[in-house]
Amino acid sequence: MTNLNRRSKKQVIAAVTVAALSVGALAGCSNSGADDADASEDTSANKTVDWWTWNPDQAVVGDWVDLFNKEHPDITINYRYIAFDDYANALRLAITTPSGPDVFGLNYGPMADQFGSAAIDLAPLAEENIGADWQDQLLGEDQLRVDDKQVALPWMVTGGGTLWYNQTVFDEAGATYPTNLDEWKKTCEKIEAIDKTCFTQGAKSSDFNRDIYVAIMNQISPGIVWDAAAGEVPFDSPEFIEGFEAWKSLFDEGIIEDGAFGLAQYPDAYDEFNRGEAGMIALGTWNNSNMTKAARDGNVETYGDVANDQVFTSGAFPTVVDSPMATDILRVGPDIAWAISEESDAKEAAWTFIDWLTTSDAAQDKIGSTLQTPALVSAEIDRSDLVDPELQNPALDSQATAMADESGSGSFPNADIENALYQALASTATEGLSAEDAAKSVQAAIDAS
Description:
Layout: H1 23-28, H2 33-45, E1 48-53, H3 58-71, E2 76-81, H4 84-94, E3 103-106, H5 110-115, H6 123-129, H7 134-137, E4 145-146, E5 149-150, E6 153-160, E7 162-166, H8 167-173, H9 181-192, E8 197-200, H10 206-220, H11 224-229, H12 238-252, H13 265-274, E9 278-282, H14 293-303, E10 312-316, E11 331-340, H15 347-359, H16 361-369, E12 373-374, H17 389-403, H18 415-430, H19 435-448
Parallel strand pairs: 1-2, 1-3, 8-9
Antiparallel strand pairs: 3-11, 4-5, 6-11, 6-12, 7-9, 7-10
Helix pairs in contact: 8-9, 10-12, 10-18, 12-19, 15-16, 18-19
């Protein structure tokens, strides 16, 4: 991964024209024969795009649609928001039917693997309309290939494995941000003394348990999780057992509260944090927009005047193992990417929308204005709207350094392995499963894949 503030890949912005998009190229992305001909007729005529995603949410999606329609007033966007915890199931039920989306969001890793077969190959369209060097222009595009098929194009790139904290809560409690487990316990004592939750975790949302475990494993040996998932290292080796023990210690020491598995990260834990009722939460760099004045104003509308007083920033995950090899290592990749359904009857309009989202100045500069890392190499991150630049600029600098390090990045090759990890983490925390047996259960899933 390049230094994402300096954007050191080719500094090229594609001049994309809808007129250059050939119906023939779109037809070539469909299944075959007569179906292709029908699709080409439909996609050239239909100007309504059904868009399914968990991000952007309802609070800001209108801004995105309005911005797109300034350039493409002839295309109608029908937006459907689905909470992330419900998204995969909703997509599974509809993606192969005409009632499903035209454009849909994907994560890299198992989600792209699971739903990639329902998406058209975007590589020919990208080469024709963005340029022969389109891969050089987009960060993380290589993580969205499934069986040599470009199933989606990235919108933004994020890093998982950070903690977020509310400086307002910390100031009220007289607490400092912890760097290790002992300090974390002392911080929690101070925050809990003012009747607030120290660390809120929606453990019902398995992805966020995974992010904590991967952060722990990257302290033990950066990237070893992905080596094991690829069959290069046994998952039941001592390093992974140590990782499960460290995960369990967060419950034993009271860092993660009883009842966490009854909460979803979104909206339960997220709302608690944003209301100033919790000091810390495990989120990635996708939460950077909450450092801005614009996001604070939006939070006032959602949570009331209490949101005016909250100041959010991020920190490295505290060290929770005895002899860490590394700290502040993130899992980096496309947070969300856009795909076109094979079943879409509006493929031409859908491509125009995806092309705009991923390569236009307007869309990618808007990503940068929210402090996210745009997928388009030439787009910049705009820090001008920070609530507390003195506090938040160093955090963003640390993020950029961590995101430039690829050692902790990767994904599971299939959902079965990831689901085995989810179950092992839950059972270790709540059912008394030993760390050894937890590691063996994930290895069994790897062996069966």
